[in-house]
Amino acid sequence: MNTSTPTSAPKRLMLDEKDFFDVLRARRPSPPAADPQALDGYLTALIIGPRFIGPRQWIPAFVGEDALMAPEHTTEAKALQSLVAAYNTISSGLGDTPEIWRPRLAARGDAAHAPYLWASGFLLATKFAPRLWQPILQGAESDLIGPIREMADPRANLNAPAVAKVAKAVIAIRAHFMPRRAKSFR
Q1: What whole-number distance in Å separates Cα of residue 47 and Cα of residue 55?
Q2: Sheet containing 158-159: order of strands
Q3: What is the model's pLDDT at position 12?
Q4: Burial degree of 131 (CB within 10 A; 0-12, 13-18, 19+)
């Protein structure tokens, strides 16, 4: 459901989606998010959070330290490129076309099925700046996170308007943190 255009490495330098998630699921210790929805939520929180989280802080948990220096055509290097492409796709979607950006959710009929996977990935990534995320997570900031909190219920199935509410919440959180985030680049 993510409608942004991928900005990524050439396909030959990446894994197809099935192989990429097979690599993630086979890693030990397990990465923080090893399915498409959870990874999308996790990366979204990294991208919109209160401060820039450098790739060296989060990439090793997914593809390992060695992937950062792996030779170009190895599985590790391709997994790294696939991960970075997913990050870039979300980032460019949120930056270039926020009005049509949507979280990546598996569809079942007219509703998003198991959106709690996305929400759990999102909430897990807030651990990189827990003190800065705290006012948002506690709802002290106009309850910006309310729609994301609602989708964290394992019984939740979201229809299109509810998914749009989640996207709007992501955009609002991004805007809330943008001034602080800009300072973190200085």
Answers
A1: 11
A2: 106-108, 111-113, 158-159
A3: 67
A4: exposed
The tokens describing 98, both together, are 């926020």
Paired residues of 159 in beta bridges: 111
16-20 average pLDDT score: 95
- DSSP helix/strand/coil, 153: coil
Residue 38 in tokens: 């959870």
Q: Which is it for strands 158-159 and 111-113: parallel, antiparallel or unpaired? A: antiparallel
Tokens encoding 138: 């506690």
Task: Return the structure tokens found at 30.
Answer: 């397990």
Q: Which residues of 73-92 are buried (b: 16+ CB within 10 A; e: fewer)?
A: eeebbbbbbbbbbbbbbbbb
DSSP string, 8-46: -S-GGGS--HHHHHHHHHH-SSPPS--SHHHHHHHHHHH
Give the CA distances from residue 53 to residues 1, 43, 86, 122, 182, in Å, rounded to whole numbers and listed in that order.
25, 10, 16, 14, 12
Q: What is the token pair recorded at 31?
A: 């990465």
pLDDT of residue 106: 85
